[in-house]
Amino acid sequence: MRYIEPHGHMVSRTTDDYAAMVTAGCAAVCEPAFWAGYDRKNAHGFYDYFLQLTEYEPRRAAKYHLPHYTWLCINPKESEDTALADDVIALIPDLLAKPNVLGIGEIGLNKNSRNELLILEKHLQLAADHDQLVLVHTPHLEDKLKGTRLILDAIQNFSTLRPERVIIDHVEEHTAPLVLDRGFWAGITLYPESKATPNRAIDMLELYGHQNIWLNSACDWGHSDPLAVPRTALQMRHRGYDATFIDRILYQNPLEFLSQNPRFKL
Amino acid sequence: MPSLPDLQFIAARASLLDLASFLDRVQRHGQDGDYRLEALREALPILLSTGPHRARRILESLSDQSQEPIPAATIQGALGAPKKEPKIS
Q1: A96/A85 Cα distance (integer angstroms)
Q2: Pairing state between β A185-189 and A166-169
Q3: pLDDT (0 to 100) of residue A118
Q4: Bridge partners for A188 per DSSP
Q5: Residue A257 CA neighbour count, 13 Å, CB half
Q6: Least CB-packed of A27, A233, B34, B63 within 10 Å?
Q7: Which of B70, B79, B83 to substitute to test the interface with A, most A CBs within 10 Å?
Q8: Does B6 contact chain A (CB < 8 Å)?
Q9: Distances from the Cα of B37 to the Cα of A261, B26, B43, angstroms
Q10: Residues of B numbered 66-85 whose beta carbons fall under 8 angstroms of chain A's beta carbons: which are they?
Q11: Among candidates A56, A36, A58, which has minimal Cα distance to A45?
Q12: Where are the alpha helices (H) located in B1-89, listed in sequence order?
């Protein structure tokens, strides 16, 4: 079996996780910039983090023969401080030339505040100005439905951002149709408690189709499983899906989206 | 398609018992007045309904239905159910 992990926060994971993922068939990992679990105090902290994502982490992954790609942004949890966010966004254009950068992400909303929305719009402008792919984080739990609606409306105010170049991640049953119906890609995140379980993810594939959807573990420093994607493949086999179908969902679909950036090569 | 009851009934039964024991537990410890428990009780009839899309409808029931951005984020986390504003009598 082969699969792509299109969303994993590998700076938070161990080398054992790299070994396990590659052993399970992982062909590439993509790491969006995210919240460190604490608020960084200034843009210098982000600059160091961006160097970790673009220089150090690809070298660590290469020791396990795993291609490593990344996305850059300030995440919405730290976007309430708009002065800090402006300083961080100003760092990004020069770093877009790094060879493993795929686009802008994971941007989005967290608590659906005015400042978060303002910084989301600035990221979208950055993506439009530099013709970048976009990876969007949608809020958690009770905030997801409202946040997804606000995000979709914000993106569609940027006429040069084509929906097929934007993936809206962490969809669930109540947001997947909103995303797919507007022509965006949808990411289903497999988490032990929040977001989706393997069975719910497979249900969404049955309900909403197999096009423009990828599955990811979004493994990070919290309660998460870096092998959630291959474990879902096993559940697909239990439910009668064959290897061709599994390959389509777990390998070819993310390959199709990510290959819109010519840097993404396997 | 294999028999889904054969494949998953035991896991669903365990999930149902986990939910029942959680409701017993919070009641036993006097915590069933929490607004999240109220939200859970409001969602339970959807589980018993016969129409499709129960998962989607439960998620919608547990969602903030407002439409405008909030003035500022005062916390960073989410708690699982929207807190309703107290009714002014």
Answers
A1: 17
A2: parallel
A3: 98
A4: A215
A5: 34
A6: B34
A7: B70
A8: no
A9: 46, 9, 10
A10: 66-67, 69-82
A11: A36
A12: 4-28, 35-48, 54-61
In chain A, the N- to C-terminal Cα span, in Å, equals 15
What mean pLDDT is predicted for residues B37-63? 97
Residue A72, both tokens:
């850059």
CA distance linking residue A52 with residue A46, whole number of Å? 10
**Pick from A111, A114, A118: which is nearest to A144 by CA?**
A111
Which tens digit of pLDDT belongs to each residue from A218-262?
999 999 999 999 999 999 999 999 999 999 999 999 999 999 999
Structure token digits, residue A195: 């977001």
**Cβ B60–A110 below 8 Å, yes or no?**
no
The answer to whether the CB atoms of B72 and A114 lie below 8 A apart is yes
Contact A239, B2 (CB under 8 A): yes
> Can you read off the two tokens belonging to residue A27?
């062909």
| Boundaries of every domain in chain A | 3-258
Three-class SS of residue B55? Answer: helix
Is the ipTM, as predicted for this complex, more than 0.85? yes
Q: Which two tokens stand for residue B48?
A: 């018993």
Q: Which of A266, A174, A244, A260 is nearest to A212 (CA)?
A: A260
Q: What's the CATH number for A3-258?
A: 3.20.20.140
Which of A84, A143, A150 has the most B C-beta neighbours within 10 Å, making it the best mutation to test the interface with B? A143
Nearest to A174 among B63, B73, B79 (CB): B63
pLDDT tens by residue, A86-115: 999 999 999 999 999 999 999 999 999 999
Q: In angstroms, rounded to a whole number, what is the distance separating the alpha carbons of residues A221 and B47?
A: 33
Q: How many residues does chain B have?
A: 89
**In angstroms, how far is the first alpha carbon of chain B from the final one?**
55
Q: What is the C-alpha to C-alpha distance for residues A172 and A195, in angstroms, rounded to an integer?
A: 7
Q: What is the pLDDT of residue A178?
A: 98
Q: Which residue has the tokens 């039964």?
A: B13
Structure tokens at B37: 């428990």
Closest CA to B16 of B48, B50, B61, B49: B48
Indicate yes or no: CB of A239 within 8 angstroms of CB of B7.
Answer: yes
